[in-house]
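We close this part of the discussion by returning to an individual protein. Part of our work consisted of pairing the sequence of a single chain with a tokenised description of its backbone. What the numbers capture is local backbone geometry rather than side-chain detail. The amino acid sequence and the backbone structure tokens for this protein are reproduced below.
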Amino acid sequence: MSAAKKAPFGSWKSPITSELIATRTIGTLEPFFGLGEIALDGEDIYWLEIRPAEGGRHVVVRYAAGGHKSEMTPLPFDAGNGVHEYGGGSFAVRDGIVYFSNFTDNLVYRQDPGRPPKAITSNGDMRFADFAIDDTRRRLICVREDHSVEGREAVNTLASISLDGDDVGQVVVSGNDFYSSPRLSPDSSQLSWLTWSHPNMPFDGNELWVGELLPDGSVGESHLVAGGAEESIFQPEWSTDGTLYFVSDRSDWWNLYCWQNGQTEVLCVMEAEFGVPQWVFGLSLYAFESPDRIVCAYTREGTWHLGSLDTKGFHLEPVETPYTDIWSVRAAPGHAIFAAGSPADPASIVQLDLRANELEVLHRSTDVNVNPAYVSFPDAIEFPTDHGLTAHAFYYPPKNPDYSGPADELPPLLVISHGGPTSATWTTLRLDIQYWTSRGIAVIDVNYGGSTGYGRAFRERLKGQWCIVDVADCTNGALHLVKQGLADGDRLGIRGGSAGGTCTLCALAFHDIFAAGASYYGDSNLALSEEETHKFESRYFDSIIGPYPERRDVYDQRSPIYSAHCIKSPVIFFQGLEDEVVRPNQTELMVQALRDNKVPVAYIPFEGEGHGFKRAENIQCSLDAELYFYSKVFSFELLDPVKPITIENL
């Protein structure tokens, strides 16, 4: 093997290219949203995948007994939905018949084996998600979001749709602002569901209800099982013996509970999370192998584990796997199927034989086999932050066997601030992170206060403190690595999407630490976001900033647009022009402010993209543009040149 060449950090050539990431990988850059929604139908396994190479189309895939894979969603159909804008829970299957929402026209389709999809709804002003199949009454029970009246807030209900065709469906449960997770008892005599109202988000507080399901399909007498304004319930499910299970954070941690004969009992008390924030529908972190055994995923300190839970003895037995991220868990007698990944493994669909304890990978999100010599493995770190607290992150050092940096030079550092802001980062092999580290740029991926996976108290650090706690933790994470001698304190960058983009802009406006920033569809005017955003998040800021308009002063104090004059470091912006969560005007106002202030700025808008980029050409363009931007700001010449972009005022 030849000796590594000396070259400036950031300049190195790498086999991990933007084209490889964008065109040979399915899913978005976040595993929960790109590959999953697993469903079982007899011996067949189904899942949903997002394909950047096909314009971000959602495709249902069937894995039949014997290993034959087939695409169930023909062109031009797109098996996604826009309920809550983020979607999820887009399909259900029974006896080989797939029922799915079509993103392009909002209709629900029935797809019988060997036949093209046939619409079973007809009004495109209605959006549908989170399907449960009611075989007894031959219908789908689902969440319906009504956008039929212009100028009125969308109306969310639980509704039923005839399997043979319906116009807009029949309302089953209504009256609250939001609904999710309709689930039928095994004998179809009871329906459970989750509901909540403004200003709560489902991870702040919601309620689990059970109602009698009458022969005509209406819901009779109903009662509250669990939940409230300060208790979050996640994933209610009925076991085949008629017991209702659910996840609650009433103990500060999302743990598993059961409800039977009117009594609630905790199955397992752990300082671990068996739930995640319900930003999308169709999430599943546990499933029944039998009435006596639950296969479940749970996270501790940012790492996911698999477990087998005895429902009679309430004993959890860890199941060893090589994975550090696990989601979309399903099970049947003798085996479990789930999506998973690790620092060495891309997001994959995995089957576990519970009797033999053998794993089989059924499908990988990429066909690329990256040489491990180029893969930077994350180190879980804790670091001190404001008010004597501790925050968490994963640190990725630069790694490329072909190069080493000059002896008198430290690498640039990119701080990643995740979105949500109540979500969390993950350690599945992320080629978008390896894109940076294999070029000689260090990365710290921060789980700041407010992130999931560390209990409700950690999550609630963000209450009234968004744009303060997250920014402080990202800043302190960077300074911690500088103090450790792992990064060049003069070449610190920060990047993020959505809430992470907002954090990026706030860090640049309110701190003098970062030499560059990359904002992907981040809020710049918080009051404007509050006024313009979609229904699901329209009161979210009440809890993480303050009530609006009563505390308009706080909104303005924390809005980067009003402190744009304080930003001296170069910034690059990326924005989808169809974004309904953070509108393009948010980014355009910020770009213009920096132009006027003669700050170096670049702006890359994308036609046809919403809140998060799904198209291969745009994913590739954004990565290369950001790399070119850093090469100019941090003053290194790329040995593997990329297409130049315009940076104004540089």
Remarks:
- The chain has eleven helices and 38 strands.
- The CA atoms of residues 18 and 646 lie 19 Å apart.
- The chain has two domains: 20-285, 375-633.
- The mean pLDDT is 95.
